[in-house]
């Protein structure tokens, strides 16, 4: 069978062949058709079809809520496996699909470019088809030499997953290594006793700003390096991920970065909240130089817990040349509200030591420096202040509660 313009030769492969070009392939529609086919009584497995060769170039493939341009497929059957060669701007490389239930998928791709979602506001799993099951996932071993994420992050990726049976698919490893960042995940997707996903993750980066830009969040942080780790889980299938259903934990340890000025968008406003950029506009003390231009930190640590869009900040602490900040409380990510307490201590150590040296001489200056180290910097403690930050992110109520 020829798609598009008529071909000039007959296919040489035995069995039924599909060749040519077609402007659009809607894999979601095909999935719905296959779902209905499999539910018919007495229907032969689709793997037993007589198709022996497929060589088609599609102008666009619609799949997983994304539009994949220029996808070519040259696939043929050898024994009980499909040998698949892909080509085009979106994907290029070789795959082997071993038939069976659930079978096995192996491959080495030269490049894979994941496009942005064509419906970014639609919830995950919103497409109308039968929910996927972990029991249907094949054992997988895929390598991608050049993976490009929608935000532009590029790197080498490797995915290994094992079908364990009894409705359990084990993600043994998913790694992404870029020039400045390494990401690693592992975990389990299970159907029983309740459908659930649970994964552990680790991230190390030499440039936090570039990493966030590559994920599609530019202009939030400049520079920065460090690491983070934690776990994440949500009920349902892999595609059912949503902010209201996800829970997890994260620990962060970052150094030598600077928050950018107030940003729009959900994540931008959240970072503005945590970097206290609303303080200078709402309090009498002048912290304008400290926070409004973007807080520069030498060190930032945080322990965060997420429970169905409610973020609990534990031990969030950042220190920089201008101030030392502690932040704790809760943030509602779904409703974009907060109930936080911030403790801010302007850094005066260097200025006090310098003043002591000028006024009292080097001996007094040295004594002042030693006293600060022994007593845990009493000058900063004396000048520290506490504030509550409550209400919507766009218009929070900020009140001074005195010294902590």
Account of the 3D structure:
The protein is α+β, with helices and mostly antiparallel strands and 404 residues long. Helices cover 17% and strands 50% of the residues. A hairpin with a 5-residue loop joins strand 11 (181-190) and strand 12. The longest helix is centred in the C-terminal third of the chain and has 26 residues, at 349-374. It is elongated. Mean pLDDT is 81; it is low at 281-288 and 350-380.
Outline of this structure?
The chain has helices spanning 27-39, 208-214, 266-274, 279-282, 288-292, 349-374, 378-382; strands at 2-3, 16-26, 51-63, 66-78, 81-87, 91-98, 104-113, 139-148, 154-165, 168-177, 181-190, 196-205, 221-235, 247-259, 296-307, 310-319, 323-332, 337-346, 385-392, 397-402. With 404 residues, it is of the alpha+beta class.
């Amino acid at each position: 069978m020829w798609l598009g313009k008529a071909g000039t030769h007959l296919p040489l492969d035995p069995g039924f062949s599909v060749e040519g070009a077609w402007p659009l392939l809607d894999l979601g529609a095909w999935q719905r058709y296959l779902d209905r086919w499999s539910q018919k009584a007495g229907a032969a497995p689709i793997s037993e079809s007589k198709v022996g060769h497929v060589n088609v170039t599609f102008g666009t493939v619609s799949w997983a809520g994304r539009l994949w341009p220029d996808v070519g497929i040259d696939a043929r059957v050898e024994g009980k496996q499909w040998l698949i060669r892909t080509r085009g701007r979106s994907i290029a490389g070789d795959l082997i699909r071993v038939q069976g239930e659930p079978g096995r998928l192996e491959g080495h791709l030269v490049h894979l470019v994941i496009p942005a979602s064509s419906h970014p506001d639609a919830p995950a799993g919103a497409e109308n088809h039968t929910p996927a099951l972990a029991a249907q996932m094949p054992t997988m071993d895929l390598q991608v030499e050049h993976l490009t994420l929608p935000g532009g992050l590029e790197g080498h990726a490797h995915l290994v997953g094992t079908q364990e049976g009894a409705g359990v698919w084990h993600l043994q490893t998913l790694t992404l290594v870029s020039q400045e960042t390494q990401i690693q995940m592992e975990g389990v997707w299970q159907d029983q006793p309740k459908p659930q996903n649970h994964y552990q993750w680790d991230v190390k980066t030499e440039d936090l700003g570039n990493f966030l830009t590559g994920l599609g969040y530019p202009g939030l942080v400049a520079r920065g390096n460090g690491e983070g780790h934690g776990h994440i889980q949500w009920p349902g299938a892999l595609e059912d991920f949503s902010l209201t259903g996800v829970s997890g934990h994260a620990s962060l340890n970052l150094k030598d970065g600077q928050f950018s000025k107030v940003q729009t968008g959900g994540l931008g406003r959240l970072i503005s909240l945590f970097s206290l950029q609303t303080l200078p506009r709402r309090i009498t003390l002048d912290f304008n130089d400290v926070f409004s231009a973007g807080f520069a930190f030498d060190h930032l640590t945080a322990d965060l817990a997420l429970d169905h869009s409610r973020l609990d900040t534990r031990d969030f602490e950042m220190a920089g040349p201008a101030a030392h900040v502690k932040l704790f409380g809760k943030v509602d990510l779904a409703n974009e509200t907060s109930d936080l307490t911030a403790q801010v201590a302007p850094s005066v150590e260097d200025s006090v030591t310098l003043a002591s040296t000028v006024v009292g001489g080097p001996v007094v200056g040295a004594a002042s420096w030693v006293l600060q180290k022994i007593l845990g910097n009493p000058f900063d403690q004396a000048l520290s202040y506490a504030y509550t930050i409550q209400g919507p992110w766009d218009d929070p109520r900020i009140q001074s509660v005195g010294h902590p």
